[in-house]
Amino acid sequence: MSKVGFIGLGIMGKPMVRNLLKKGIETTVYDINQEAVELLVKEGAKAGTSPKETAQGQDVVITMVPNGKIVASLLKGENGILEGVSAGTIIADMSSVTPVESKQFAEWAKEKNCDFLDSPVSGGEPGAINATLAFMIGGEEAVVARMRDVFDAMGTSVTVVGPNGSGSVTKLANQIIVNLNIAAVSEALVLAQKAGADPKKVYEAIRGGLAGSVVLDAKAPMMYSRNFNPGGTIAINLKDITNVMDTAKSLEVPLVLTSELQQIMLSLKANGHIMDDHSGIVQFYEHISGVEVKTAE
């Protein structure tokens, strides 16, 4: 069974560690938030005092943090992961970063004779809690096989897409689809509300047809119930969409709808909604339409 060092104990990392512990996987944790570390130590984890110490003696080191800049500092900063790892350790970055960053991290790992996987996740906080995450991976199949027990403890879908960078670009594609779907649901329910239809009834009427989706089922009830408590914040999703646009620019790929979505998210940020769940995208459409999506029930 793998020994794991896990760095990043936020909304995703904390429940992911809990699921590792439930499967009996020895896990050492580190975060700048000492309260999060202490909480998981009480539940059976070991505490690392630095990224370096957290990486020492591990089969696998996982990073789950907000952006690529933080991943880079964890890897190569003072008392960083690469100072602590032994040759043959697998470094798995489960953060959402750009493909360019993932390829750079893989090169740094290679210099230490370590394997690297970019393995971002889909499923949000519910998936992290329920161990139903989907992993989209850039790296070698043989490396994934060596830490399969770790993936299986935290998720239900493990797909190796291609070489390093492939997992990260797949995550960006996922974020385009998810967030544009939320925007489409927002437009539809705002239209329905403005026309006098109850948005809950509209949702119930369409969810069994071609318009039905996991996103519709997850986010429409949040919209018409006015519940914008975050599973995935607009802040995190704006970061991902910004990574999408930066990657698209470098590849000279026009992304017309996604560029508009980025502007919608920036508007929501300016109006104080940045820490709302991304179902809160509906609030942009409400503002420009003069209506609030809310069920009468």
Give an overview of the whole structure.
The longest helix is centred in the middle third of the chain and has 29 residues, at 166-194. This protein is of the alpha/beta class and 297 residues long. The strands form 2 sheets. A 6-stranded parallel beta sheet has the order 3-2-1-4-5-6, with helices on both faces. Strands 7-8-9 form a 3-stranded mixed beta sheet. The chain has 2 domains: 4-163, 3-Layer(aba) Sandwich (Rossmann fold); 170-289, N-(1-d-carboxylethyl)-l-norvaline Dehydrogenase, domain 2 (Orthogonal Bundle), CATH 1.10.1040. The chain is 54% helix and 13% strand.
Termini gap: 51 Å
The name of the CATH topology of the largest domain is Rossmann fold
The number of domains: 2
What's the helical proportion of residues? 40-55%
SSE order, one letter for each helix or strand: EHEHEHEHHEHEEHEHHEHHHHHH
In one word, what is the shape?
Answer: elongated
Task: Estimate the strand proportion.
Answer: 5-15%
**Poorly predicted ranges:** none
Strand order of the largest sheet: 3-2-1-4-5-6
Biggest pleated sheet: 6 strands, parallel
